User: Fold this.
Amino acid sequence: LQLHHSGRYRCKAKVGSKQSWWEESVPVPVPVHGVPVSGVSLSAQPPGAQVALGDRLVLSCSVAAGTGPLSFSWHRGGSGAPLGTGPRLELSHVGDNDSGHYQCRASNGDSVAESPTLNVTVL
Assistant:
């Protein structure tokens, strides 16, 4: 079910076995409401978000609830400029400057929700 399915619906039924006339119901309004984005969480590979210098780190963002197409943005240390978009952020060769607190924001166009921060440590 999508938001654009909102509208007025009616049904038609054939009346009688020999006659072929149709009866139509009174239209009924059916509103479809969006569900706000909620339950945004982060996971890391390797687990615990502790990664050796030069290794790969993959962060994944998931949403427990929310209707509509979702968009994602990644942020470190409360920075305004996103590090990336999409449900995954991959750092192929981590450096010392990649340590910090990471957060994912998810939006469906009507609402925005943020994940808890995840502390990434480069060893």
Notes: The radius of gyration is 24 Å. The chain has a mean pLDDT of 89. Residues 41 and 115 are 5 Å apart (CA to CA). Residues 38-122 form a domain with the Immunoglobulin-like fold (CATH 2.60.40.10).
